[in-house]
Here is the input.
Amino acid sequence: MKDSDLEEDELLNLSLSVAADRERKKKGKIVREHNVSMSSTTMMNSYESYEGKIFRLLQMREQMLRQDHRRKGVVEDGNGLSLIHLLLSTATAVDDNNLDSSLENLTDLYQTVSLTGDSVQRVVAYFADGLAARLLTRKSPFYDMLMEEPTSEEEFLAFTDLYRVSPYYQFAHFTANQAILEAFEKEEGRNNRALHVIDFDVSYGFQWPSLIQSLSEKATSGNRISLRITGFGKNLKELQETESRLVSFSKGFGSLVFEFQGLLRGSRVINLRKKKNETVAVNLVSYLNTLSCFMKISDTLGFVHSLNPSIVVLVEQEGSRSPRSFLSRFTDSLHYFAAMFDSLDDCLPLESAERLRIEKKLLGKEIKSMLNNDVDGVDSPKYERMETWKARMENHGFVATKISSKSMIQAKLLLKMRTHYCPLQFEEEGGGGFRVSERDEGRAISLGWQNRFLLTVSAWQSV
Here is the structure.
C-alpha cells in the first residue's frame, strides 16, 4: 500500500475517534417529530417545503450517478480527510435534527462522492444515501428510491462475486470446515463414520462443497462416510436451490453418502439426531448477530447446548454496532466498511463491474440498512467484538478449543492465493493488506485488513 494510503488510514482512525467524543443525545426522527406543536396548515406547508428540498438534494444525487467518468479521487488529492470530516458533520447534524445543515452537507457530499471513484469516495456515497434516507419517513417514495432492495438474483450474483474474488467468506468457511473435519476425525472410532452438520444459516450453501470434497478423500467404496446437513434458511425457494446445488455436487463423490434437510428459520425442531453415535457439529456462521434481541441469542445458545454437539463453530464480524447511540454505531460502521471497500481495491480493478455490483448490492445495502434499522423499533444487528462473544459463549456452558496449526497454515495459503496488489501480513507485522492473526492464546483466528479485524472464527465444546 502507498504511504499516502497509510497516512489516510491513520487520519481516518483519528477523525473517527474525535467524532465519537462529539456525540449528542438523540432527539428523535427529523421528519416525524419536526415542530409537532405547529398548526396543521403550517405543518403541511413546512412538509411540502421540506419535500422540495429533499427533491433538489436527490437531483444532485442523480447527477452523481449519471456521471460516465469517475471524479478525481480525493485520496490522491489529499482531500480524503476533509470528505470524512464532512460525512461525520452530516451524521451529527442528522442526529441533532438540524435539517438545514443536514441537507446542505449532503448536497456537498453528493458533489464529491462517486460510485466509481477511490475507496473513500465510494464508501462515503453509500453512507450519504443512508443518512438521506434517515431524514425521511418510510412512506416517502424518496425513501424507497434510496433504500432500493436488490432482487434475490442480484444479491446472489453479488455474493458469488465477493466469494470468488475476496478471501472474506472463504476464510470463514475453510477455517470453520477444518475445525469440523478435525472434530469428526477425533471420533472416527465411535461415530460410525457419520457426520451431522446443523447449519443455522445455510444461505446459498457455498460453505459445504469443500467439506464434501475433504470427507470424500477420507472415504473409500468399501468404507463410505455419511454426511448429513440440516440447514436453516430464510425461504423455501432458497433452500430448494441450495439443496439442488449441494446434491448435484455430491454426486461426483461416490464414496460419500450425502443427505440434506432444509428447514425454515423458526421451525419447531423436535429431534435432529438421525444416526447412532454420529458426530454432531453446529455451524453458527454470521447467524447470531442477525437475531433481533439478546434473549433470542441466549435461547439459541441454550438450544445448541442441549444438542450436546461435538463442536460448535462461531464466525462473526468484528464490531461494536449494537444498538447504543446512533453516532457510536455510525463511527464503528464507517471504520469497518472503509476497510472492506479499501480491501476490494486489492481484489478487483477500479472499473470492475463485479466490484460495483458487490458494493451496490451487498455492502451498500448493509450500510444503508444499518443507518436506518433502529427506526420504528427495529432492532440493530448484534455486531460485537470477539471478547463479547467469548463471554457470551462461556456463560452458556461452552469452552473454547485451540485452533489447529493446520487451520492457520490453510488460512495463510488462502490469503496468498487471494492477495493481488498489497503485501500479505501475519500476526505481529504491521503495514497494509490482508492479515491473519491468532488471538485469545490460539483459541480464535481473525481475518483483518490493515489494522482492522473483519472476521473472527472460534471453535467451542459443551461442558
